[in-house]
Amino acid sequence: MNSLYSFTLATLLTVLAYLAGMAVYRKIKSPFLNPIIVALCLITLAVELTPLTWCVYIHGSRPLIKLLPLTIIILALPLYRQLPLLKKHHKAILAGTATGVATSALSLFVLARIMGVDIELLRSILPKSITTPLGLSLGQSLGGLAGITVISIVATGIMGVVLYLPVFRIFKITDPVAKGVALGTASHAIGTSKAIELGEVEGAMSGLSILVSGVITILSTPLLLLLLSIY
Q1: Both 54 and 96 in a single domain?
Q2: Are residues 90 and 58 part of one domain?
Q3: What's the whole-model pTM score?
Q4: Would you say 33 and 4 are in contact if contact means Cβ atoms under 8 Å apart?
Q5: What is the count of structural domains for the chain?
Q6: Predicted confidence band of residue 72 (pLDDT cuts 50, 70, 90)
Q7: End-to-end CA gap in the chain
Q8: Residue 14 and residue 32 in contact, taking contact as beta carbons nearer than 8 Å
């Protein structure tokens, strides 16, 4: 099967599945029916119930995957509009994001040690809380499996948009800056899509947190490698 055909097929399936997911979410408004969850289910059904194979779909999706880093540009305008707020709270944003990154990595490492998780699996899921392009690069540098890394990143994002509301209620988080930082740091792009729904401030802070958490995670790679060496 030629590359153009597989690309067209994969792109068409992805776009249609996401549009269907958006339609379902707008009608039902349940966090368990997030557009990405619905799209993943529809794509899986399409691959399993038709002659289309995962090999063809993944091959055709590669150009789309390469475009992922460009999606962050969409957040540039709301971030620019919230520049005064960013300057005012820059210390809190940096501290909150750094704390979130450290908590995610250390808690995962401790739980994996307690549960006896295989080292290769741990290497694959450590980048779970950063956006997919950076997560894949980090996972590969740690010696992880790309497929598991992607699954863990998507699962983390979905869990964030499912659980954010009760967590905010329990801990009485009402500040829009805090909401945005929490969603962006914990749930990367999927969380940011939810933050944008909440408001422009939340969306801008979430988008910024994606970048900051990604940079912090990449810079802390030597520490992660050290932890893995003593695992």
Answers
A1: no
A2: no
A3: 0.82
A4: no
A5: 2
A6: low
A7: 44
A8: no
